[in-house]
Specification:
- The protein is of the alpha+beta class.
- The protein has two domains: 7-112 and 188-215, no CATH class; 115-185, no CATH class.
- It is built from seven helices and ten strands.
- It has helices at 13-22, 38-49, 88-99, 129-133, 151-163, 170-184, 201-215, and strands spanning 7-12, 25-28, 57-61, 68-70, 82-86, 103-104, 110-111, 115-118, 123-126, 190-196.
- It has a six-stranded mixed beta sheet with strand order 1-10-3-5-2-4. The protein has a two-stranded antiparallel ribbon with strand order 6-7.
- Strand 8 and strand 9 (123-126) form a beta hairpin.
- Helix 1 (13-22) crosses helix 3 (88-99).
- The longest helix is centred in the last third of the chain and has 15 residues, at 170-184.
- It is elongated and about 60 Å long.
- The two termini are 32 Å apart.
- Mean pLDDT is 85; it is low at 210-217.
Length: 218
Amino acid sequence: MSETVFTKVDYDLGTLIKFIALGEIGLPDIQRPFVWKNAKVRDLFDSMYKGYPVGYLLFWQNGLAADTRTIGTDTKQKPPRLVIVDGQQRLTSLYAIVKGIPVIRENYETEKISIAFNPLEERFEVADAAIRRDKSYIPDISTLWAGDAKIIRIIRDYISNLQTAHEITDEEESKIEGAILKLQGLLSFLSPRWNSPRTSLRRMSRMFSSASIARGRP
């Protein structure tokens, strides 16, 4: 009789972000560095905003803190009790944007990724100089989840700033408010999570790295 290797648990994004911030979710040393282009980070948020599935996350229950590293450049309080072996690029991207912290690239240099959002068009872009000058964009969506963020003030300030460029109808104001609130609400986005306490970390990482390459999703 075969044993159950994986256990499925659904966590919302806010819970996963909290666990990473504490240090309870980390990376195995054998995982590759963060390699996603900024456009893929943008597309991830676009897919979540539209309600598209973005794949599962696979974790290994870690009994030792050795041979692991943390996600993000911020200080952690605890050693990892879970390490991610499938979905590293997605989870690292989400954490970096929601917390507004840099990612560590392949060359071990840090980079702050800024994703912009146009509430009227419900459009995401990688922030560059032109986007930052465009009043129709929130230039960095990380501000929506900052510890001191006041969403009503963010909406009001955005509308006031946009009105300096052109008039806004009541219908447009309502659409802007709804879009920004919807984006901020992504922390409630459910992500299927699979745990495995029995399979060796190296074996599992090799297995799912091969599977990820085969299906083209890190």
